[in-house]
Amino acid sequence: RFVGSLGTIVIKCKDLRIIQLDIPGMEECLNIASSIEALSTLDSVTLMYPFFYRPMFEVVEDGWCSFLLEQEFEFLSSMTNEWRLSCVNKEFSVCPSYPPVVIVPKSVDDEALRKVALFRHGGRFPVLSYFHKKNGMVMMRSSQPLTGTNGRRCKEDEKLINATLRSGRRGFIIDTRPLNVAQQARAKGGGFEQEVHYPQWRRIHKCIERFNILQESFIKLVEACNDQSHNMDRWLSKLEASNWLTHIKELLTAACLAAQCIDREGASVLVHGSEGTDSTLQVTSLAQIILDPRCRTIRGFESLVVREWLQAGHPFQQRCAQSAYSNSKQKWEAPVFLLFLECVWQIHRQFPCSFEFNEQFLIMLFEHAYASQFGTFLGNNEHERAKLKLPQKTMSLWSWVNRLEELGRFQNPLYEANSLVIWPSVAPQSLQLWEGVFLRWNRPSKFLEEAEEERINIIKYNKELQAKVNVLRRQLAEMEMNEEVQGNP
Amino acid sequence: VENVRLLDRLSSRRAVLGTLYLTATHVIFVENGSETRKETWVLHSQISSIEKQATTATGCPLLIRCKNFQVIQLVIPQERDCHDVYISLIRLARPVKYEELYCFSFNPKLDKEEREQGWKLVDLNGEYNRMGVPNNYWQISDVNRDYGVCDSYPTEVYVPKSATAHVIVGSSKFRSRRRFPALSYYCKGNNASICRSSQPLSGFSARCLEDEQMLQAIRKANPGSDFIYVVDTRPKLNAMANRAAGKGYENEDNYSNIKFQFIGIENIHVMRNSLQKMLEVCELKSPSMSDFLWGLENSGWLKHIKAIMDAGIFIAKAVAEEGVSVLVHCSDGWDRTAQVCSVASLLLDPYYRTMKGFMVLIEKDWISFGHKFNHRYGNLDGDPKEISPVIDQFIECVWQLMEQFPCAFEFNERFLIHIQHHIYSCQFGNFLCNSQKERRELKIQERTYSLWAHLWKNRADYLNPLYRSDHRQTQGTLHPQIAPCNFLYKFWSGMYNRFEKGLHPRQSVTDYLMAVKEETQQLEEELEVLQQRLANLQKSQSGDNKVKSKQQDRSKQSGLYTSNNSLANTPQEYSNDLKSFPSRSPSQGDEEDSALILTQDNLKSSDPDLSANSDQESGVEDLSCRSPSGGGCLPSEDSGKDSDEAVFLAG
Predict the structure, then answer these.
(1) B331 belongs to an annotated ligand binding site
(2) Is B330 a catalytic residue?
(3) Checking CA distances to B7, which of A255, B32, B168, B543 falls within 20 to 30 Å?
(4) Candidates A423, A425, A472; nearest CB to B530
(5) Is B634 close to A265, i.e. CB distance below 8 A?
């Protein structure tokens, strides 16, 4: 992104950096500017960097195959046998934004799934998102039901989601839209689950904003963060006016609610909004961060991103095309994934010892979602990725990240596995702006980096000592053994 | 009073039943039922306001707000009892004589010698020597020997050598409350200094030859520079208004070679209201994000903090980079001047960022120069208009700097919070009275104990694990960022929502690193012991049998030692280490910190059964214990969810 003027090119990057180049010679400057313009707004995906990028490192593990749903299912099978893998979407014919395989209740056959798909927006029928080992409760996600104004119903849909309930138990449907929005959606053929048809379910409406509202908020916030004035009042009012932290709070609250229903209430949960590709995924993935210690490890988090974002069909290419400095209004642009990452950071800040990865890891994911040499975040869903032959033609981000050389940078030195559910506070006093992203290019980071280094050193030194002491102890024990053998022949 | 309910602010459903005791010094609430019988202790001197609310069906609610930002809500079943408690607390919370304060009855069981040692811990003479005075330019003046010139100044004051007693006395007559320019900080490296005073009594045109000579003398004491800055920390409007009352500010025309500068820090009344507004925001039951941010902005609190910091940064820059001396004043020169001088000193000199140095700094710029602790913090019943969070703001400035320079300070956040607590607690004599003169008259040092000694004794709890004296960040002058887009001034929930544990990060990096460091130290010791024993063993194996058997005896003994120590390496033990300080209970004669320790207790050991890392996880466990399992009751640390609950109960 850039604005050119009189020998100066200002390049505004998607990672919120602003670079200013002074170029002698007006004509040269214009030429460079138009080249950058052209190159940064390529029309065709296949002309993008990932298709030309040749890795300079040895690929140990192909990231494209690192996180297959089959593995996840295997893990699930070790805990329960009530679910099955369905290949009903093998040709992407039932639901274009779903992956070829999905996990559904065992008692529901593919034929029923096809019918349910017709009853859900975009064919996104309810599928398993998370199984809570502790009490066997589950979280599912889908899109809105197409009830329309005349209250259509679908027996198979009801049967499908009821199949996830234990007898006599109730479940919760978390609709990420406020009630009035959900009601309005009926006029356009959408809608929500009526109590009469879903008597075992309680519906809860949350208010998670979407699309342009988020994007505007993002733009305002970034603008506030680049305001060089020294005025405190102005800064605070701009921060407030951006509403960014309000979105964070709403989102975290909804995720906590979902987690609460599962862990505290012992109930199963179905989450959806309209399309089920944005706010739904934010809620289901954050709830897993709260509930599942596995998701707080590096590999577990990667797997979560793959499952709940990439395979679940979050349209990265549409949402992460321009970032905050876009001049033209992009209809599909929205910082949905960034909001999710920031919420993870907020939880991370409150539980700094419970995550295997550090802040840098989250920032790295933010960068790569917007611009990357890897093909991972290209395309809007698995179907498009398959058509582009991304696994064959581009390198996976995970192939790079999961190498030992890189992993070191993303590890949290304070990590100690915490098997508990972590409940974050969502009070305004507990939430802060993510300086690591928004003030990244403005604040001097030297002192903070030094502090991080110091933390690493303290812990490293401790571990070294521990190792040394253990070696000596063993030696001593051996020598004492010998001693005793010699002493009492 | 029995059957009193202590309400939890965030959720009315969570209340505990217990008994309320009023003693001569504390309000004590003891929980019924639970085995631990958790106790909440509040010092009377911490009470800032008591509010009796309308009686409800369940009883008579009483709201106690404390100066350390604790808010306690009690419901007393009988209205009459409630009224009695209310009346007694009002009396107890507002003592009229110094002798009624806790520090005169507080006895940490130290003998006389230890007490005297404690008072000697911070030595201002030593501090001025450390700065490098007296020297060729500066000397101690004894003009104020018997507080004859200025009763709010200390007896020993450093002034330029060229300023004669006549000049000093003359200058003092031209300054509010006779607070003449005196040395606050001297920079050995370049002879630049920070001096402080009150405003000149210049009115619209008055001038004073001696005062002009005094400023001249300050300039001459810094031969490297041909002018000095005179910094008036007030907004220009306020300073001009003062002229009508015969006070005002220096006229650049009358003084040779001064550069005059207004800084614009608001007065104590504005600050008091600002804090009040911010606390109202903190007390909101379930604020939305924009309620909170709007309230924060509207209170202006962070703006004021920034103004103080900016002033400090300006002065530090003048001294360190330009090598120019600065004279700082406001109106009386004991509030804003103290804030600004101490922030500047802190930025300039790494010593003040150590634990000892920070005590010295408060002793120097606040206690000795007559900051009116009694009036500002309402220790005795007095004019409510005199109360203002002046030193609280300074303490917050330090915290904001710690956020920006995580390795630069030897102490941690807890140190600051405990100092703030004790400024109000009146448990130690340090902060009593309004001036050195009053303290001497009361014989404070003979009758009370020093906080500094107490903090120093427990210094292990207050260390910043990231601090290393040889680290780059600990050296030299700090250059903080000033624009909000470069550095965020944050709301300090650790202070202002100190007692709402639910709002804070559930795992403390500082505590974790402190535990790791402690373990590291144990490991170092063990390593040494092991190496020694290995060496001995190797020697003995080559020696004869006699030696061997002796050696074995010894190794058996030390074997015991190591087995103890090896336990220390399992996580189990290091959580005990961590718990060892909260478990200092009041009954162990270490009563001094009761209120604090109890809160630490709450913070740290909500569930003693949890092993090892539980310490970091206790917050988690605490939360999960909170929600009763039945009745569709969701854990409600967040009331946003409460409203949802309403939805789905009704739905």
Answers:
(1) yes
(2) yes
(3) A255
(4) A472
(5) yes
Compute the distance between CA of residue B306 and CA of residue B274 in angstroms, rounded to an integer.
13
Interface size between A and B, measured as CB pairs under 8 A: 244
Residue B111, classed as helix, strand or coil, is coil
Q: What is the biggest distance separating any 2 CA atoms in chain B, rounded to whole angstroms?
A: 99
Give contacts of A 235-264 with B, CB under 8 A. Answer: 235-237, 239-240, 243, 245-246, 248-249, 253, 256-257, 260, 264
For residues A489 and B204, the model is more confident at B204
pLDDT tens for A374-413 read 999 999 999 999 999 999 999 999 999 999 889 999 999 9
Residues 6+ apart with CB under 8 A from B360: B122, B124, B127, B351, B352
Residue B41 known to bind ligand: no
DSSP state for residue B55 in the 8-state scheme? P
B216 within 8 A of B256, measured Cβ to Cβ: yes
Which SS3 state, helix, strand or coil, does residue B362 take? helix
Q: Quick check: B335 pLDDT over 50?
A: yes
Q: Comparing A366 with A20, which gets the higher pLDDT?
A: A366
Does B335 appear as a known binding residue?
yes
Buried b / exposed e over B444-481, threshold 16 CB at 10 Å, is bbeebbbbbbbbbebeebbbbbbbeeeeebbeeebebb
Q: How confident is the model at residue A1 (pLDDT cuts 50, 70, 90)?
A: very low
Query: What residues in B contact A445, CB-CB < 8 Å?
Result: none
* A253-290 CB burial, b ≥16 within 10 A, e <16: bbbbbbbbbbbbbbbbbbbbbbbbbbbbbbbbbbbbbb
CB contact under 8 A, A202 and B302: no
DSSP annotation of B497? T
Q: How close B304 comes to chain A (CA, Å)?
A: 9
Find the closest chain A residue to B480 by CA distance: A444
Residue B532 CB burial class (10 angstroms; 0-12, 13-18, ≥19): exposed
**From A235, A429, A473, residue closest to B491, measured CB to CB:** A429
**pLDDT tens column, B351-399:** 999 999 999 999 999 999 999 999 999 989 889 999 999 999 999 999 9
Which ipTM was obtained for this model? 0.92
Please state the φ and ψ torsions of residue A291, each to the nearest 5 degrees.
-85, -40
pLDDT digits over B580-639, tens only?
222 222 232 332 332 332 233 333 333 322 222 333 333 333 333 323 333 333 333 333
Q: Is B294 annotated as a binding residue?
A: no
Distances (CA, A) of B429 to A335, B432, B452: 56, 6, 10
* Strand partners for B229: B259, B326
pLDDT (tens digit, 9 = 90+) per residue, B501-543? 778 888 888 888 988 988 898 999 988 888 888 888 888 766 5
B56 to B53, B59, B62, B63, B75: CA distances (angstroms): 9, 5, 11, 14, 9
- Between CA A228 and CA B234 the distance in angstroms is 25
Residue in the structure block whose two tokens are 């460091």: B517
Rounded mean pLDDT, B181-195: 95
Partner B, chain A 39-98, Cβ-Cβ below 8 Å: none
User: Which of B542, B508, B486 is closest to B617 using CA atoms?
Assistant: B508
The Cα-based distances of B629 to A23, A260, B9 in angstroms read 68, 12, 21
Q: In whole angstroms, how large is the CA radius of gyration of chain B?
A: 28
Tell whether the model's pLDDT for residue A138 goes beyond 80. Answer: yes
**Whole-prediction pTM value?**
0.87
